[in-house]
Amino acid sequence: MEEVVKLVSEKAGIPEDKARIAVQVVAGVLKDRMPDAMAKHVDPYLKGEDDAGGFGDMAGKLGGMFGKK
Predict the structure, then answer these.
(1) Structural element, H or E, at residue 54
(2) What is the domain extent for residue 58?
(3) For residue 50, which phi and psi values (nearest 5 degrees)?
(4) Domain tally for the chain?
(5) What is the pLDDT of residues 2-61, one digit of tens each?
(6) Does pTM surpass 0.90?
């Protein structure tokens, strides 16, 4: 999660403690709105653990749907 926190901090121009809160809030909202089978992979993915059950691939495909690579 630290990598994401640093990225948010840099991109938003906010301190890391505030960026960490933002990342936690967004992750919480995503987990609340995702099916349980996907939601359980959010935290491991943010922590950089393994492939988090293929979540990285799913996230990449989802980003591709919105024109992000």
Answers:
(1) none
(2) 2-65
(3) 45, -145
(4) 1
(5) 999 999 999 999 999 999 999 999 999 999 999 998 899 898 888 887 665 565 565 655
(6) no
